[in-house]
Amino acid sequence: MGEAAIDGRMMDGRAARLACRHGKVTGTTAGLAPGYVQGNLVILPREDAADFMRFAQANPKPCPIIGVSDVGNPNIPALGADLDIRTDIPGYRVWRDGECVAETGDVCEFWRDDLVSFVIGCSYSFEEALIEDGIEIRHITENRKVPMFRTNIATTPAGKFHGPLVVSMRPLKPADAIRAVQITSRYPAVHGAPVHMGLPAQIGIADVRTPDYGDAVSVHDDELPVFWACGVTPQAALVASKPAFAITHSPGSMLVTDLKNRQYAVI
Amino acid sequence: MGEAAIDGRMMDGRAARLACRHGKVTGTTAGLAPGYVQGNLVILPREDAADFMRFAQANPKPCPIIGVSDVGNPNIPALGADLDIRTDIPGYRVWRDGECVAETGDVCEFWRDDLVSFVIGCSYSFEEALIEDGIEIRHITENRKVPMFRTNIATTPAGKFHGPLVVSMRPLKPADAIRAVQITSRYPAVHGAPVHMGLPAQIGIADVRTPDYGDAVSVHDDELPVFWACGVTPQAALVASKPAFAITHSPGSMLVTDLKNRQYAVI
Q: Can you tell me the distance from the alpha carbon of A62 to that of A22, in angstroms, rounded to the nearest whole number?
C-alpha cells in the first residue's frame, strides 16, 4: 500500500477496490478492507479457458475458483456490483508464451473480446481468522508480502495446463500450527488446511528464507514453517504450459471483492 | 494381548471386557473390540476424589472424564452393564504415597468402600478414525504400546493434584499430521487435537526414541513426531502429588466399555 496515504482498514470492499482503481493503492492489498474476500486473478482467451477451468477443478486446494466472468466482459457482478477486472487490481502481470512481458497498474490496453477472467480464493481470507484467534502472522507483523515457493509437488495436469504446486509459508509455533490447521480447515474455498509443515526439503524447498515469490520473513528456531496451497500456482502453470496470452495479478496485489470472508466458513 | 489366544478384533466391548476379567488378555488392549471406547482409570478414596475431579476439569485435554462411579461401587453402568472395575482391566497399578507398590491383574484385595473410580477417554478411540482414513499408526504396525513422555508443560493444579502433562507420540508424514489434526479435532472427549508436533525439545523431550511409558517405535526422517495429551497424565500427578492411596490401569492396558467411538465425534 502506498505510503499510508489511505487507511485501508476503514474501507469496505468497494471502497478498497475503487482506491485500487484510482491508483491510491500500488502494492500489496494485505490489510485492506478487513472482512472482505480478496482474490487471485487469471485471465485467459476463451480457447484456453475450458482447459484452465478443468485444471482448477482438478487442483482445488491451490485453485479454488470463487468467480468467473462471461467471455469478453470485464465485470463480475457476483463479486462486486461495479467491479472492472481491467482496473481494480493495483498490479497486473501480462504474459505471452509463458513469459511475463509487462507489469502494469491497469490492463485496458491489453483487453480483448475473447478474454475470460477467473478469480481464485486467497489466503488473506483465512489469515483474518487466524489473527482473530490471536495467532501472529509474520509477514503482516514484518510488513512484507507473504513468502511463496514453487514445490516439487506436481499439480494434476488438465489439457495444456500443468506445473508445480506453489505454496505460501507462515512460520508458527507448533501449538499455533495445530490451531491453524483447525481454523483454516473451516475455509476450503480459500485454500483450506495446510498441505505441509515442518520439513521443507521434502517438498523441494531448500531454504525457507529465499522465497520464489513475495518477500522473505523471519523464521525462529521454535517455529515450524507451515505451507498452504497458493493462488499463485496458476502463474507457475503459465510458465510451464506457455499459453499464447494471459493476464494475472501481481503476487500480493489482489482483487478486493464485496463478499465477506465469513461466508466461506463451512462450519 | 496374550499369545493370540483370542482374536480381539471379533469381539464386542462386553466380550473383550469379560476376556480381560478372565485372564485371557494380559497385556495391551490395543486392537481389542474395534469400534468400542476404551478408557484410562484412576481410583481414589472419596477424600481425594473432589480434588481429582477439579484437576480433570481444569485439564480436559489429558483428563477427559467419560465415566465416574458411585462411592464404593465397583460398577459403572453408564460404561458397561456388568462392568466390574476391580477385575475388568488386564493390568492395574496400586499406588501408595505416590509410589507404584504393586502391578496386578485384579484389585479385589485392595478394594475399599470409600473408593471412587474415574474413567478417562483414551487415544485408542481416535486411532481407529485415523486408521480408517488410511493413516499408519506406527506402534500398531510395530505391535508395541504407544510411546508416552512426561513433558515440561505443567498441568493446571487443583487441590492436592499437580504434575507434568504426559503426551503420547505418533510419527507421521507432514501431510498425514495435518490430516490427523483434522480428524482428531472431531474427538475432543478422547484427547482431541494434538498439543504439539515437530519440535520435541521444546516440550522437554530430549529423545523421541526413549519414552517414559510404553514402548519405543521407529521415527523416520520424513516424519514429524506428533504429540497428543495422554490419559497417563494422572499417573504423573500421583507421583508428584503423593496421595496416600490410588489405583490406576497399567499404561496400555485399558478398560473396554460398551460405548462406541463414533458417539464421541462432535461433527
A: 30
Of B123-127, B177-181, B227-231, least confident by mean pLDDT is: B123-127
Residues of chain B that touch chain A, judged by Cβ-Cβ distance less than 8 Å: 174-175, 177-178, 181-182, 185, 193-199, 202, 222, 224, 267
ipTM associated with this complex: 0.88
From the list B120, B157, B161, B108, the residue with the least C-alpha distance to B257 is B120
Give all strands of the β-sheet with B164-172 in edge-to-edge order.
Answer: B148-154, B164-172, B224-229, B196-197
Nearest to B38, CA basis, from B247, B264, B266, B246:
B264
A155-194 confidence digits (pLDDT tens) = 999 999 999 999 999 999 999 999 999 999 999 999 999 9
User: Looking at beta carbons, which residues of chain B come within 8 Å of A178?
Assistant: 181, 193-197
B8-122+241-261 belongs to CATH 3.40.1640.10 = yes
- Structure confidence by residue, pLDDT tens digits, A68-79: 999 999 999 999
Is CATH 3.40.190.10 the right assignment for the domain spanning A8-122+241-262? no
The predicted model scores a pTM of: 0.91
Give domain limits for chain B. 8-122+241-261, 124-233
Contact A7, A15 (CB under 8 A): no
Alpha-carbon span A148 to B61, nearest angstrom: 35
CATH number of the B124-233 domain: 3.30.2040.10
C-alpha–C-alpha distance, residues B160 and B55, integer Å: 9
